[in-house]
Amino acid sequence: MSLIPDITELLARARADLRMGVPVVLVDDGGGGVVAAAAETLGPQRLSDLRGLGDQPVVAITNRRAETLKARAYDGDLARVVIPADADLAWVQAVADPSDDLDAPMKGPLMTQRSGHTNLHRIAIALAKTARLLPAAVVVPVEDGHAFAASHGLTCIDHARAAPHLADRSPLHEVVAARLPMEVSEAGRLHVFRPEDGGEEHYAIEIGRPDRSKPVLARLHSACFTGDLMGSLKCDCGPQLRGALAQMGAEGHGVLLYLNQEGRGIGLANKMRAYFLQDQGFDTVEANHRLGFEDDERDFRLGSDILKSLGFSSVRLLTNNPAKIAMMERTGIAVTERVPLKVGETAHNRGYLATKAAKSGHLL
Ligand SMILES: Nc1nc2c(ncn2[C@@H]2O[C@H](COP(=O)(O)OP(=O)(O)OP(=O)(O)O)[C@@H](O)[C@H]2O)c(=O)[nH]1
Ligand SMILES: [Zn+2]
Asked: CATH 3.90.870.10 spans which residues of the chain?
């Protein structure tokens, strides 16, 4: 029945629920389940009602966050921190959010669960991440997941149906393209691409009319509100964006993909949390880890999807990031040349650029 939402649509609905502070129900293959809510958006009444369900609630966090909290991660990539009976919402939020780690360290040791299944906790964390929230979820078991969801009107996700889709990217479709005269070239054209799962749109700016049979000068630019628009001195994004467009304008053609993966895929709120940690002395990579994220949560396969749908198969890529080149090659776009982009070094971003070179393999 096509009027019933499919699993991709249910996952999108679950992300929206978590962003609003509404719990979702996750159901394992045997029908048992959990109620899960994002730690960041959960309110006090809902925390209290989750506790009222009877079973032991936990906060599921990534092993990165667990490492910072010195909590044992028995489950490899995640840990289930037991919520003590006297802990309040502020305690739950402090497990999720590192802002006060230094000022008001958590009193340990944190107890973590060791036995039992973790499939559903993993889904809860993945949903919180893709909802651009802190990767932490309050999780409480319930006996019959489907019945609980139906009686409470909550979004219900079956593990077996969801698992194959969590690492997928949604197919992108071009919605519209129109002429966009720009300072660097009057022959600009902006294409808007929309995924099927209600996620972020991404853009392609085509300069001139590049020959599809030859390698095109291309840039995969990741959104950086602070650098691209505000003139932030903490990174080199703004000068890189304008430098890439200027070079395309000078050559007469090129294609710039503007991928809405703000903050290397963690979203602007989390990037600002990372900046707050950077002001406490952590570097850009350490800050991501303390928040519970990997160094880089972006998905560059989006870039090859868009290039292919525009008819390109090979590029001269403007980048200092070898991971982008490797990903292009792996996903069927030939990189015939790396064109270096060295612009915008400032006193504020020198340390950031050095960290990227030392820890993320960026070429200087
Ligand atoms: N999480 C996080 N993201 C950041 C930080 N500084 C910049 N960003 C984001 O990083 C992305 C840009 O990535 P960069 O690592 O500068 O460059 P790159 O795209 O990997 O490589 P180039 O092609 O050489 O520019 C943008 O999405 C920025 O918003 C930071 O300190 N923390
Ligand atoms: Zn930036």
From this structure: 7-165
Architecture category of domain 7-165 in CATH: Alpha-Beta Complex (3.90)
Q: Does the beta carbon of 324 lie inside 6 Å of ligand 1? A: yes
236 Cα nearest atom in ligand 1: 16
- pTM of the complete model: 0.94
Domain 172-261+298-359 = CATH 3.40.50.1110: no
Q: What is the pLDDT of residues 123-154, one digit of tens each?
A: 999 999 999 999 999 999 999 999 999 999 99
Find out whether 237 and 228 touch, Cβ atoms under 8 Å. yes
State the span(s) of the chain assigned CATH 3.40.50.10990. 172-261+298-359
Catalytic residue set: 296, 298
Give the tens place of pLDDT for each residue, 4-39. 999 999 999 999 999 999 999 999 998 889 999 999
Distance 359 CA to ligand 2 centre (A): 17
Q: Is 221 annotated as a binding residue?
A: yes
Distance of CA 240 to the CA centre of its chain: 22
Strands 254-259 and 216-222: parallel
